[in-house]
Design brief:
Chain lengths: ~325, ~280
């Protein structure tokens, strides 16, 4: 379990992380979401003791990082695949790390095989692709067979095959009952991996809890209705207090009553339904919705973010 | 702590540039030793011997263009091959000393440059332990290499010199050169931890030792006794060969050690307090 309490980090007059508190439950995969500049990487580094918080603190399984006699046996981390000396061989890089925690050298071969790099143990890492570096970073994190693992954007820069491999790898670790805290801006990816979410914006906590709760609590639900008697249905729905938004293409999005109620109403009107689709915003849409205003860097031009419902957004 | 030292030893051995740098330093020392012997072997000591008393003694080239080349009517000119001491052939160690300091800067500066300091400090959150392990590994390594270099100089001198002599000062060099190397390495690690950039750290060290101290020592009267490198470098030479008015050997050596230790301590404190 990771417990962060009142974490605060300032860089001059900029407050990167502001009194951030959250808990990452044991044996679960917790996604760490936030727009660029939200303070995710800073928080990760503070969790690992690399950055000194100006206030607050972090405990991992009740202990500070400095309390662990051999931290790699308890906590593993992949913050950036580029943290390598280019002229050092892959096996030597892991060997030096393993030695620092008294881990046997055979672990190097084991973790390299685990990530599929067994054949390049004697190659210098300067010639590694980004995907290979990511795998080497994972191998380093796994050296001590730790119970708690932190990954900062582990799928960054990976090709689709690499992303799939990473997803399976993290899922496999989670299935072993490890505590996994993973940040990502690939929200769809996160919805496939994570059970819980910690969402931050401009250093503040926006949400903590199950992925489903995030979607249900923040997402707008609506029903798309298509019918030859659309006007009559819309009128009846408005009379009942529902919010009705016409959508281009001859359908309406209805916020309020669920699909069953709308179906019953249509039947009572003798209307024919061509479509009756309950809809919910995707994780990505919800994320954009809840972090609106909490993005440090935002494009000034270009297409707007996708609207919440399928056509016109009910509000 | 032993595990951390082992880890640092593995790091040191598994980066090609470190090994190349050490061998390059060794080659410089050997080259200077051979050149020094060749230079001295071409000289002769001459002296006038009169009624059992040596009037003068100096070294002149074979062509007798300067020095004592004639004696009075009651004296006889005696020419003998010049004597080569160990201290005459270890000049390359001064250059190697810079290399040792640079290695000290490198071992920590490169960790920051390539961001490997983050996995390092994640694996060993007690950062002073990492710095102390680096010091133990680097200081021991440079001291051993310096001792080997000095012994190689000894071997070259005894093999190539026409007249080879070893006195108390030469025996002192066998431990004072390795000690200087270890201390200078410690200072280098301190500078590396303060600056956190290998190139900037090496330039700072170079500028301090070989430019700033030389200029200040030459321009400001009485300043040499406060310049740590000039005081410390005496440990690698025959005392009195230095050009400036530095402290006596022991006092100067202690002063140099204190400055290097202070740099290391400052670097360690900063590495511990700063974000990695």
């Amino acid at each position: 379990m990771i417990e962060a309490r009142g974490l605060t980090k300032r860089y001059g007059s900029t407050v990167a992380v502001d009194s951030l508190s959250f808990t990452v439950e044991s044996g679960r995969v917790t996604g760490f979401l936030g727009p660029n500049g939200a303070g995710k990487s800073t928080t990760m580094r503070m969790v690992l003791g690399l950055d000194r918080p100006d206030a607050g603190g972090v405990r991992i399984d009740g202990q500070r990082m400095t309390d662990f006699a051999t931290p790699m046996r308890s906590v593993g981390a992949l913050l950036d695949a580029g943290y390598l000396h280019p002229t050092r061989k892959a096996g030597d890089h892991l060997w030096a790390l393993a030695a620092s925690n008294g881990l046997p050298r055979r672990r190097v071969g084991e973790v390299l095989d685990l990530v599929g790099l067994g054949e390049v143990a004697k190659k210098r890492v300067g010639g590694f692709s980004l995907g290979m570096r990511q795998r080497l970073g994972l191998a380093a994190a796994m050296l001590g067979d730790p119970k708690t693992l932190l990954f900062d954007e582990p799928a960054n820069g990976l090709d689709p095959e690499g992303i799939q491999w990473m997803r399976r790898f993290l899922r496999g670790l989670a299935d072993q009952g490890r505590t996994i805290f993973v940040s990502s801006h690939l929200l769809t990816e996160m919805s496939l991996i994570a059970e819980d979410l910690v969402v931050i914006g401009q250093g503040h906590l926006i949400y903590q809890g199950p992925v489903g709760g995030f979607l249900e609590g923040a997402a707008k639900r609506w029903v798309t209705v298509r019918s030859p008697q659309l006007e009559a249905i819309a009128l009846a729905l408005r009379d009942q207090g529902a919010e009705v938004v016409p959508v281009a293409g001859g359908s309406i999005d209805v916020v309020g009553p669920d699909a069953v109620a709308i179906g019953e109403l249509a039947a009572s009107l003798g209307a024919t339904l061509h479509e009756l689709s309950p809809r919910q915003a995707s994780l990505e849409e919800v994320f954009l919705q809840v972090t609106a205003g909490a993005q440090q860097y935002r494009a000034g031009d270009g297409p707007p973010p996708p609207p919440a419902p399928s056509g016109g957004a009910p509000s | 702590m032993i595990d951390v030292i082992r880890s640092e030893w593995i790091k040191l051995r598994t980066v090609r540039s470190t090994i190349i740098t050490l061998f390059a330093a060794g080659a410089i020392v050997v080259l200077f030793a051979v050149l020094s012997i060749n230079n001295i072997n071409g000289n002769q000591n001459t002296r006038c011997v009169a009624q059992g008393t040596a009037d003068t003694a100096t070294t002149i080239p074979d062509d007798g263009s300067f020095g004592v080349d004639s004696c009075g009517p009651d004296a006889t000119l005696v020419a003998e091959p010049a004597v080569v001491h160990l201290s005459d052939v270890t000049a390359g160690v001064t250059i190697a000393a810079f290399v040792f300091g640079a290695l000290g800067v490198q071992i920590i500066g490169q960790e920051y440059r390539f961001n490997t300091i983050r996995p390092t400090f994640t694996a060993v959150p007690h950062r002073p332990r990492v710095l102390l392990a680096k010091l133990a590994v680097m200081a021991a390594s440079t001291a051993v290499v310096a001792l080997l270099m000095t012994l190689v100089c000894w071997a070259i001198g005894s093999a190539l010199a026409d007249v080879w002599a070893v006195d108390g000062t030469d025996h002192r060099l066998l431990w004072s050169i390795p000690l200087f190397a270890a201390l200078w390495t410690m200072g280098g690690i301190g500078v590396g931890a303060i600056v956190r950039q290998p190139i900037a750290g090496i330039l700072a060290l170079l500028g301090w030792a070989f430019i700033a101290e030389q200029i200040v020592g030459s321009v400001v009267d009485g300043s040499a006794r406060w310049l740590p490198f000039l005081n410390g470098i005496q440990m690698t030479t025959r005392v009195g060969e230095g050009q400036q008015d530095v402290r006596p050997l022991l006092e100067g050596g202690i002063y140099f050690a204190v400055v290097c230790a202070a740099l290391f301590a400052l670097g360690t404190v900063l590495a511990d307090r700063r974000d990695a």
